[in-house]
């Protein structure tokens, strides 16, 4: 069985780590962006799981796929996957993941923002690109999305280039790419944060806490109907 | 009013909720409602719905009451309230229901931007990709050049209104923001991206669903309700050129000035008499500019008054205690009615944590187009 | 070829663009026309980032100009670093492409 496990487990590269950074948000709160470990996947699954029921903005498919990706990573069934998390006072506010296809090419999987209105998703997506280009030394990252709204924003904002010959592993859809040149041109506008993270701040991000599932779903889908009209 | 933000129901559901709340608040028998005015800008475009006033009458089982929808862009609410007040004041009816609502979040941000841009001049503005923020951006650049308003002043408006909205359970955005986070720290470039320079994300109101409603009635009927009386003391309205380029001085909001003067004249009040105001801050610059044109401050000094804290909740003239359009939200058809709703609560002493002390005279300014159709109200508390 | 014209009141010479049925100054209803062309001065501008679905650019630059002829108009600025007061020259060009259909409008470059 041990031999079979070795067959089924993809070979692993020791990826250079993502150096944590802190991001000062519009609210005055500081978000720590750091790499998550395999051991933290169970708690990430607890956060992502409830979102698989939220139809709005394609959260259901994004959360379902992310759940599978994280579980696959934890169970050694995905090659060279990573996950970066955003934490405010230790509470998970977002996560991004992806993997490396080769030394020079990366694949972006997903971005989930769990607190809205503070550009958490924008910061974390940018952190993911920062990781691929600056810390993994890659030349480009293949990107697709489930949500047309989310995708169009990045397609225009970076902007992204087409890679029609590449069928992205997320559904086989025609891929787009962020290249090294595009990244560095966009960096002043789109990538922010401070390194190193102060010790006391880093200490708050040592353990991942979650808000209640109901609160999370409300945060993500807005707060319809509350309070009652007056 | 409903909680502004993202509503689950459709437009008629939103109007229903706001209307029933207003009817219940009035303690009047709904059968007393003789006329219904619905303020809405986008039902035909965004929801493929027309005849919304008739639909609301049916939903509320108020037939055979008279009903019409009023469309005046973002000033639809003000217009509907004005017309209702006129209907009652003329003696045509004794009781009218005014309900403003909008369902804007069923479409993408690009589509709602385009919908609002439909109020621009089709040949001279719209074809160029003009958006309402772009008009505000050009206005802001001139205002900054002429009067020394800075990005910091704009940020102060946003910070104040976000702070006020924390005390308003019906506000769309209830999130404190800081000067560092939106302007001075390096991260601000991502936290607060440009929308129509020099205006940035936190200078612009959000896209909101929501509804607000009022029962407008004769004094005799109002006295029977047992509620503190709030009166339409003054109403004013004025228009200006459709295109911004044709205005003699594009930093002047002439329609705001004229509408306000009319309202104050009718009310027998001066701007200095106002205890609390709701101004149309779809963009932060507009709160500053309107505060001058309505007469609270001399032209070109609104930002200095803001700096001094004169427009804060505890200041000389609290502006936008509700959080304004910036944080309370801006479902365009509802806004003018929501402003009057907030003022009514303020004048009755029912505004909770954001109550302005001893508020007896209130003022609102509902800004249509880019200042080409403006309605102003003076409300007063009656004994 | 689309042309863009300003309107000059025959009675009082008041200049307007766009068209009004009645002169905003004297109320009369007859106008001469004159092309919107040539040199212009930039009065104000903005870079617009949140556009409608008709646009795939990250931003476009719009400005209000005053022509040497006295008319004022809004148009697309094809200028990297606009400055209030800068001298411009006028051309007609695509200002919108929707479903493959180009709309032509006033564009301005640095003179």
Structure description:
The complex is a heterotrimer of chains A (230), B (383) and C (111). By secondary structure, chain A is of the alpha+beta class. Chain A has one domain: Gcn5-related N-acetyltransferase (GNAT) (Aminopeptidase), CATH 3.40.630.30. Chain A is built from eight helices and eight strands. Chain A has an eight-stranded mixed beta sheet, sandwiched between helices. In chain A, helix 4 crosses helix 6. The longest helix of chain A is centred in the N-terminal third of the chain and has 16 residues. The radius of gyration of chain A is 18 Å and the shape is globular. Chain A starts with a helix and ends in a 9-residue tail after the last helix. The mean pLDDT of chain A is 93. Chain B has 383 residues and is α/β, with parallel strands linked by helices. Chain B has one domain: 3-Layer(aba) Sandwich (Peroxisomal Thiolase, Chain A, domain 1). In chain B, 39% of the residues lie in helices and 16% in strands. Chain B contains 15 helices and ten strands. In chain B, strand 9 and strand 10 form a beta hairpin. In chain B, helix 4 packs across helix 15 and helix 7 crosses helix 12. Chain C is an all-beta fold and 111 residues long. Chain C folds into two domains: 35 residues; 74 residues, OB fold (Dihydrolipoamide Acetyltransferase, E2P), CATH 2.40.50. Helices cover 0% and strands 52% of the residues of chain C. Chain C contains no helices and eight strands. In chain C, the strands form two sheets. A five-stranded mixed beta barrel of chain C has the order 4-5-6-8-7. In chain C, strands 2-1-3 form a three-stranded antiparallel beta sheet, with no helix packed on it. In chain C, strand 5 and strand 6 form a beta hairpin. The radius of gyration of chain C is 15 Å and the shape is globular. The mean pLDDT of chain C is 95. Chains A and C meet through helix 5 of A and loops of C.
Give a topology summary.
The complex is a heterotrimer of chains A (230), B (383) and C (111).
Chain A: H1 2-8, E1 21-24, E2 30-35, H2 41-48, H3 59-74, E3 81-88, E4 91-100, E5 105-113, H4 120-135, E6 140-143, H5 148-157, E7 161-167, E8 174-179, H6 180-190, H7 199-204, H8 213-221
Parallel strand pairs in A: 5-6
Antiparallel strand pairs in A: 1-2, 2-3, 3-4, 4-5, 6-8, 7-8
Helix pairs in contact in A: 2-3, 4-6
Chain B: H1 11-26, E1 35-39, H2 43-46, H3 52-59, E2 66-70, H4 76-89, E3 95-102, H5 109-117, H6 132-147, H7 151-165, H8 179-184, H9 188-191, E4 194-196, E5 199-200, E6 210-217, H10 219-225, E7 229-239, H11 254-267, E8 276-278, H12 284-293, H13 302-307, H14 324-328, H15 332-348, E9 361-368, E10 373-382
Parallel strand pairs in B: 1-2, 1-3, 8-9
Antiparallel strand pairs in B: 3-6, 4-5, 7-10, 9-10
Helix pairs in contact in B: 4-15, 7-12
Chain C: E1 5-9, E2 15-16, E3 31-35, E4 39-48, E5 60-67, E6 72-77, E7 87-98, E8 101-110
């Amino acid at each position: 069985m041990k031999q079979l496990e070795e067959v089924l487990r993809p070979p692993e590269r020791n990826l250079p780590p993502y150096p944590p950074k802190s991001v000062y948000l519009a609210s005055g709160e500081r978000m720590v962006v750091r790499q998550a470990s395999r051991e933290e996947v169970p708690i990430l699954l607890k956060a992502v799981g409830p979102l698989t029921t939220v139809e709005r903005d394609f959260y259901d498919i994004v959360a379902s796929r992310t759940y599978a990706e994280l579980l696959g990573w934890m169970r050694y069934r995905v090659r060279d996957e990573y996950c970066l998390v955003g934490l405010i006072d230790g509470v998970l506010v977002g996560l991004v993941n992806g993997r490396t296809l080769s030394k020079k090419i990366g694949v972006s999987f997903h971005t989930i923002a769990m607190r809205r209105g503070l550009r958490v998703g924008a910061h974390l997506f940018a952190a993911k690109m920062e990781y691929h280009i600056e810390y993994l030394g890659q030349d480009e990252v293949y990107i697709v999305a489930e949500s047309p709204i989310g995708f169009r924003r990045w397609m225009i904002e970076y902007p992204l280039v087409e890679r029609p010959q590449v069928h992205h592993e997320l559904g086989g859809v025609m891929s787009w790419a962020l290249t090294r040149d595009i990244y560095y041109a966009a960096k002043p506008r789109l990538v922010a944060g401070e390194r190193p993270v102060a010790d006391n701040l880093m200490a708050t991000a040592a353990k991942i806490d979650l808000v209640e599932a109901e609160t999370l779903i409300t945060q993500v889908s807005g707060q319809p109907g509350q309070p009652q009209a007056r | 009013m409903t909680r502004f933000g993202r509503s689950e129901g459709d437009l008629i559901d939103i109007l229903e909720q706001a209307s029933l709340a207003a009817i219940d608040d009035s303690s009047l028998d709904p059968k007393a409602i003789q006329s219904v005015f619905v303020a809405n800008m986008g039902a035909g475009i965004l929801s493929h719905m027309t005849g919304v006033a008739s639909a609301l009458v049916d939903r509320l089982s108020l037939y055979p009451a008279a009903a019409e929808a009023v469309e005046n862009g973002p000033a639809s609410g003000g217009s509907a309230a004005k017309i209702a007040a006129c209907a009652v004041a003329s003696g045509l009816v004794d009781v009218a229901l005014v309900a403003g609502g909008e369902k804007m979040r069923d479409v993408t941000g690009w589509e709602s931007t385009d919908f609002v841009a439909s109020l621009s001049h089709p040949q001279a503005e719209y074809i160029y990709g003009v958006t309402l923020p772009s008009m505000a951006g050009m206005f802001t650049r001139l205002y900054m050049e002429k009067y020394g308003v800075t990005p910091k002043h704009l940020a102060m408006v946003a910070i104040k209104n976000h702070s006020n909205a924390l005390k308003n359970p019906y506000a769309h955005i209830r999130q404190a923001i800081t000067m560092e986070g939106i302007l001075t720290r390096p991260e601000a470039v991502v936290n607060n991206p440009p929308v129509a320079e020099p205006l940035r994300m936190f200078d612009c109101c959000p896209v909101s669903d929501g509804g607000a409603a009022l029962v407008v009635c004769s004094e005799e009927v109002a006295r029977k309700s047992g509620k503190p009386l709030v009166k339409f003391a003054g109403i004013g309205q004025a228009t200006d050129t459709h295109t911004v380029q044709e205005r003699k001085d594009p930093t002047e909001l002439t329609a705001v000035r004229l509408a306000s003067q009319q309202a104050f004249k009718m009310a027998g009040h001066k701007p200095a008499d106002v205890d609390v105001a709701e101004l149309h801050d779809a963009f932060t610059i507009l709160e500053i500019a309107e505060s001058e044109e309505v007469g609270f401050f001399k032209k070109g000094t609104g930002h200095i008054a803001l700096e001094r804290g004169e427009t804060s909740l505890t200041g000389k003239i609290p502006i936008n205690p509700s959080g304004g359009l910036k944080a309370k939200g801006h479902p365009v058809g509802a806004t003018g009615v929501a402003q009057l709703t907030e003022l009514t609560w303020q004048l009755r002493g029912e505004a909770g944590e954001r109550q302005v002390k001893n508020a007896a005279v209130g003022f609102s300014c509902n800004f249509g187009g880019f200042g080409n159709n403006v309605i102003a109200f003076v409300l007063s508390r009656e004994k | 070829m689309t042309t863009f014209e300003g309107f000059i009141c025959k009675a009082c010479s008041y200049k307007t663009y766009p068209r009004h049925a009645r002169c905003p100054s004297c109320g009369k209803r007859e106008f001469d026309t004159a092309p919107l062309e040539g040199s212009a001065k930039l009065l104000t501008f903005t870079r617009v980032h949140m556009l409608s679905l008709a646009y795939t650019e990250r931003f476009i630059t719009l400005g209000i100009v005053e022509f040497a002829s006295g008319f004022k108009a809004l148009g697309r600025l094809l200028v990297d670093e606009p400055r209030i007061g800068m001298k411009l020259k006028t051309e007609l060009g695509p200002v919108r492409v929707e479903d493959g259909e180009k709309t032509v409008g006033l564009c301005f470059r640095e003179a």
